[in-house]
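Contributing: when you submit paired examples, paste them exactly as shown. First protein:
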Amino acid sequence: MMRSIAMILGTILAILFLIQLFRGQKYEELVEGLEEKDFPLKDIYTVGFCWAELPPLRLRGVLFERLEQNAKVLYGEMYAEYYANVYYAMALSFFHFILCFGCLLAGWQDSRNFFYLGIFLAIVGLIYGCDSMRQKLVKRTENCETELPEVVSTMAILVNSGMILRDAWNMVGGRGEGDIYALMRDASEDIRNGHADSEAIAKFGRATNSPEIIKFTSALMQSMGKGAGELPLFLARQSSDLWNEKKQRLLQKGEQASAKLLMPIMLIFLGIIIIILSSAFAGISL
């Protein structure tokens, strides 16, 4: 019975998948430029775009607002709606593909467990698609916060040696590798396109999505307003403070890692005690 139900359901899902894949050729241009390392199995996202055409499955409401907000920070306001729809299409595509595969596998193996596992993994794929952009944003924010002390200390050295802030910013951003340096290059590009320095720096702070960096950029703009004489002292103070904060964060992460390791050790210890006690009681009963 299980084999028949799973095979029928899997076959229907497979046919629907192929139909949507054929219909989704009109969306191929939307996924063509996506990088495979950031968007796995991007060629099947056209299936998700087709499902999103249906009124009950259209991207809207709270989910749309959350995806669009994350996309604005991660990719810029101009591309926010596009990336929100891409991630939603990815989620729908993964759900359909995994559920189809799980049903066919359950039917082939005549296994109820594979059927339930397929449903579970399909839901995981759906959640992954909807949440992966937020995870990328969190990771980028953490990377930016980790790289900030080195950026500020290098800028402090350059400004103290007589270089103006804009040139120091361009030099540091142009030579570094990492998320914060890429965002600095974006700010430099904005300045070359006619944006004011303060506006570009403020946008840079918002793009990091880090309260710490936003606070730093706000203080930097205030220091810029006070004159060139204040800037070297400000950067030197900030460099010292940020390195101290980074040391504290590393210590906290070390403590958290130790705490996470403690639980498995306690479970292993408890298991050993149970085995010893079981052996002891077995010996007594004999």
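Second protein:
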Amino acid sequence: EEAQYGVAVGVTPRDQGCKGGLHFFDLKDPSKPVDLGCNGDDGYVHDAQCLIYRGPDSKYVGRDICYGYNEDTLTIYDVTDKRNSTIISRTSYEGAEYTHQGWVNDVNNQEWLFMDDEYDEERTTGPAADGYPVTYIWDIKSLENPKQTGIYKGSVRSIDHNQYVNGDLIYQSNYGAGVRVYDVSSVPQDPTGNGVCEIAYFDIYPEDDDAPGGGVPAFSGSWSSYAYFKSGYIFVNTIERGGYLVKMTKREFCKANACSADNCLRAMRASTISGRLEESQKFCGEFTKTFVADVSLVPEYASKACGQNVISRVSSACECLPTASS
């Protein structure tokens, strides 16, 4: 909008022209769009957010940057010259199945990015193997070397879809689980995602609420929402049930991280089982290196005790284990 051009994504057929990549159009006169060029260097682009760059990477300040979600990577483009745009970086991540969409934390200070993968829950892959929606957190302070630093997970089994940032809140449409609102204000201080919490939700598909985990990872429900009205109203789009206009009347607040001796933590530090604490400490040492792990890598004793949403609960338990002595 600021630069008065549009970008077409998800273009088909993929075997023509720019292979389904970014397509640029001059929109100074919206009634007469002008083709400005395209970029197919990384093939198909499912979604993208394009902004005038304002952030800590001084090399690109004032440049026209697109953050592309390209099926298996976060791909960052410099599109200042639409006829000769280039790829700055192309980065994949553990659990990649269908890199779908994402949003930066602040268009005026582009340091962090939140991204979803649409198929990882359905295909039970990586940190989404338990069916709870995973949002991937990226440190984008270096556009040439973005780093995936952590994740946060939804409280209800479902598939995550479009998400948008407004202030410190993310409004994420999670198909059958409806719109979930997350407080992400903790991310600059804790980029692992452990401090992110869900503060509100609007469930538009209650039929599956009695299923294990409170829902079913399926392609029905809400695709998107719009939370930028000055009135505070939120428009919620759905596949089968039209649109809803809702408003947050109350919200939860993120609790300070604390160690509580639940079954998950008890199982991992059990003093009655010889060597259990040391085994857990060794596991946690590897598990927390990347903050993203496959559920199948969690020890059976921990997986059983931690129940639903295993990755999040094991991560919290690891934080509470005593440090291994040398």
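If you have annotations for the second protein, write them as plain sentences, like these:
Residues 263-320 form one domain.
The chain has a mean pLDDT of 91.
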